[in-house]
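Thread title: Can someone regenerate the structure for this chain?

I was given the following input by a collaborator and told the matching structure tokens would be attached. They weren't. Posting the sequence so someone can regenerate them.
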Amino acid sequence: MQKLGDIRKHFFLTTGMAKHAGVDLGDAIREGHLTREGYAECVTRCRHCTNPGHCAEWLPEAQDGDPVPDYCENRAIFHELKKTG
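Best answer:
Regenerated them for you:
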């Protein structure tokens, strides 16, 4: 079984990537578009990533309007949440 990445690191990667995608995960929970469990699943998906260094390098360089990279484990959910917000 694959060892999961550091929870704090992946929490910040998840929230950073969501923010870049235009999604506030806290607002998504408050508005009923995402459950607390769904939020935890986003972080866990990120923790399963085998190369989180890609996101850690990409986020500080990302420009407004840059799409979330294809390799992001949460790309689809962020896209869906963006449509609901």
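Residues 13 and 55 are 7 Å apart (CA to CA).
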